[in-house]
Amino acid sequence: MRIIEPDLMPQANGHYSQAIEHNSLLYISGQLPLDHKNNNLMPAGIRNQAELVLDKLDQILLTSGSNRNQVIQVRIYISDVHLWSEVNEVFAAFFGTHKPVRCIIPSGPLRYHALIELEAIAALND
What we know:
This protein has 2 helices and 6 strands, in the order E-E-E-H-E-H-E-E. With 126 residues, it is α+β, with helices and mostly antiparallel strands. Strands 1-2-3-6-4-5 form a 6-stranded mixed beta sheet, with helices on one face.
């Protein structure tokens, strides 16, 4: 097992790791739409927040030796079920023809009043 803490990402705020590699799989912790390049500000709107969490996912994947086409599963938590369609559009644009298994869970309020949080499992490059 290998703990991965990408240099481009901020350190975890709680007692968790950004990602852990185990048996050629990469387990990625929930990513909130906090922009660490901009004093951890959160962009307005679900589209911008969804794009940011997917960008963070991409950074972790690339740093870890994987890529978006090796994502197996994604769990997306949204603060309101009415955000589903916009999140789905951003997700489809990000992944293109690759379609990982996924669930979108309307969870109610999220930490820091975020509209979205995303976690994933991916395969590592051979």
